[in-house]
């Protein structure tokens, strides 16, 4: 069983399947959650899978360079920034509407 | 900065000056605009003499030229990469139009002496609009031409929307949208020319040296002609003009009907026919038929109008029909007639709308049946109104006749590419308009000025004030001057029409490189 | 005939039309500044100067071409006014030839006398300066028309004449009837001028193509036999009709409009709304004969056109008879004279119509009648003016017995009436006799018969007018205390009376003839003269029988005819037909639908597009639910589809 | 080699299963706080992946920023908005189904695209991520390298972004005096302690 494991290591395809699975779950989270913060979690998941992809390609396609990793660092910072802003908005939302339920916040209809 | 650039800069600087004077100083704003436009009149005179001297020098070579020769040319590269440059110059047709516009804007400013609300923005916008118009008439780079064209059309929305009367928002919206749709057609045409020429330039002079394939011209010419036709009140696209003019304030409708509608005719002649002679030959007869409808349709509808401004707007639709009719005739007399008609109708309609504004200022009504017998209280306005009316029905001795006789002769004498019979028939149909015009002009003016005054309020109306007398006096003088001594205007225009005709006949050597 | 050795006056013969133009400008611009009287004096002086100049031009012209010989056309002065193309231009110039000299003299003389008369007649009227300015404008444009060397110059002056008649008819602009009449006059003549203009362009077009090297619009070219042959052959391309006949008919349409021939005569009776001197000058002596002059000027084209002349003859004859019949039933003195003018012009027209290149006797007769008619018709109108001025009414049934009250006016009026009736010593007899003779000699017996019958009718209605106005006793207290006209009005009356007599004795045929043809026929002279006089005397007797004294017998006769009388009185309801055509058909059935079409269909189309944009946008609002996650779902769905398409395309 | 190829593969599959399970738990758990914890788990496992892929510095950054910073912030705000104590009601069937559909569609599409472009990276990654290269220095140098391949511009821009976000966060969430009076009465009582 060890040889089987050693003989076929996870190729690019496997990694990509994994990251796209994580991405899809993130999308599911974004669209189904009623709680605003839940949506944000979904966004974090999706961003995370994106960063993973970058590192994955960096390591498997161009091991010598570090561009992939640098990009994923940027993604992480942007995710952080986005989370901060999101949370600030949710706090305001909460103060205004006493709830963070996304379905209630539809005043921007027209 | 050469003379021609000053022609464009003076109104713009005046506008800036007006913008920077505090709104409170009503008197100063009026005087600045008056002086600015007055200075422009002087500048135009100087340019005319200058041009006169230059043009005489090469009048002979024009006989066989196939490319227009420009004078007082100024070229400054603008967007090198796209082949766009600030290329302004002057030739007979542009100079005639510049003179017309300069006179009309001066008269317009004089006629709007008593505009009350927000005077500063009004004069500033008016001067920006006229800068755009001057720009169009003087620029020979298609991109620059289009830029000034938009500059001329857009302030119109504000001017009608804010200072207008009646359904002003609706008319402003309609006018601007239709004109912009027209300019969209024009833009498509320009870009097509830009690519098809392969010269990677917008320079009209160099684009003219390329001969475009016939089927290319088959679809680009109508695109350009209809694009320009929208603003030149071509038949199906004229509906913006009655509403637009009747809602616009006096000076704006003077400027618009007097000058802006000439952009259409000018553009059709300068760009559509000049660059695409084959296309002109293919579509010439079709547009001649449409413009014949234009002429008769406009005059018949004018008979039934009750509002003075609608009455004049439809009359100017009919007269603009003459312009495009002349252009579509594609021969020397026809095209020359088109340019003269542009000039003479510009002055005429400017005078008409100016006077309507003045009468409205006194009687506060534009409905013809409500007025009567005004000649007794305002003899000056009545007589100038009648002179304008007589000029519009083409009475000899006034400029209307010179233009219309040219156009009719041009139409009747036909050209080698269209069937002579159809052109003669169309011209005869068009000549019927002089009778219909006489009917509606005299009926309208008689109802307004003749007879006795029924409405007691009209008993003590005042006659024209000094500024109004100057404005109407200047316009009447121009009408009579061109009517009695037309050779000045005709000699100014003729040398510039020759290249267009030669190009159509594709004969004569190509004049030296520009 | 080099220009240099022409006399001074001939070389600057442009003075004749120019003087009234300058004085028009002066009076029009400064009418308000200086006193009323000055305007009258300036205007009258300028026309007097122009009359003297015209006389000198005539004298010098006939010194070059003595009366007996055949007068050539001279163009002593001309400038190129407007150039359409290299050989196509309007040249403004002076053409001097027998008929233009004749017209110049007639127009300036009558105009001067009318100006003089007007200073008296119009004193105290509002707009005195304006009146004289317009009268001068008219004199200028009429003279411009007469001396025109280029057909387009004639067309331009033609329009200006129309304009000045419009301005003068509508002089009393506060009266709606006058305004309507002026409008009607201008529009009807404008409609006729349309035909004229198309005729001109047609001639110009074919002339330009066929007569290479010559200016197609100049009269010299149009009347030179060589070019006429070239043109004769051409067809005008319009339904195969020959060029010259079509051009001639179109030009005649213009002439018919201005000279108020049958279909287009409706404006002349209404034109009497203008002041009487205006009617005298414009609607009797000068403007209305412009049409006759045009046909005479273009006689070369007409003669070459063959059947066009027939049309002229028949229209002329019919108008002659038709107008005379109506004149017998009119009650307004100026209307009677208006219809009599119509009838007399009918005479001139059919005189031209019956003549031809072979024997142009009618041409001379027509010009002769034009010459004489100008004087006695002007006199009639001025006399009527004096009467109206005195009795303040123009209804002949309210006048009567003015013979004793206004002796001099009565005398001059009688002279003119005898002259128009064609009684021997007076000028009318000679010219009408010539016309009848030319009709008989050229074999147009039908036309001759109508001419003779109308001569009788003319005598009848003129003397009916004379008896009702002057004989008997005043039927209205207004007429009762009428008084003689002031001196300044009487001088022109007397002058015209003298001219009406002398004009007949002028050996006209030596002065005016077309091409080498002989002047008047000799044989058959006495017969026609006798027949004419008998017809005239019959007319006079019959009208004496009816109208002299109490005039009651007239009502009885009128009653017996009843319906016919009514129809004729209302001018055969032709005015009503025209009104019906213009208002009901043109306005109601063409202009209104077109206006409706423009407002609803063309405008509607634009508004429709606006409406569609609004409706479709409202339709899409259901997409904007406000739920952020709904947008998220659309976003993901959209991106997936885009990816699919991109990926499939790559595949 | 830190660990043999076999353990690498084993670890990969182990981590994969754990992270997917935790992710599903994050998006589906009814109590938001628990979801936050699961999210922390997923992020931690991803740090593990980074280690597997031989990017130790990134794993550190991941743990530090994502887990340490963002999840803590989320938990903080959950507390602030008192949404932790109220059980979140189940998302309606329609929402779940559309979300599921969208997620599945994107997954299937991604996989098919990867499947079909398999050939593109045929030879890549054959030696798998078994050795751990310490490339932190290289990352540092790349970040500040002004040359064409350098990331100094994005680096500065990101720092700017963070500054803007910080300011934004403060202004958004600060106690608003101005429209306090306008806002309805009860919102100003005791006021929630804001960030």
Walk me through the structure:
The complex is a heterotetramer of chains A (110), B (514), C (651) and D (195). By secondary structure, chain A is mostly helical. Chain A has one domain: Helix Hairpins (Orthogonal Bundle). Chain A is 76% helix and 0% strand. Chain A is elongated, with a radius of gyration of 19 Å. By secondary structure, chain B is mostly helical. Chain B has one domain. Chain B has helices at 3-20, 26-57, 59-62, 92-111, 119-138, 142-163, 168-197, 204-207, 214-231, 240-247, 250-275, 277-303, 308-329, 332-363, 379-392, 399-413, 420-449, 466-484, 487-505; strands at residues 71-79, 84-90. In chain B, strand 1 (71-79) and strand 2 form a beta hairpin. In chain B, helix 14 packs antiparallel against helix 18 (466-484). Chain D folds into two domains: 1-91, NADH-ubiquinone/plastoquinone oxidoreductase chain 6, subunit NuoJ (Four Helix Bundle (Hemerythrin (Met), subunit A), Up-down Bundle), CATH 1.20.120; 133-187, no CATH class. The longest helix of chain D has 25 residues, at 56-80. Chain D is globular, with a radius of gyration of 22 Å. Chain D starts with a helix and ends in a 22-residue tail after the last helix. Mean pLDDT of chain D is 78; it is low at 180-195. At the C-D interface, helix 29 of C face helix 4 of D.
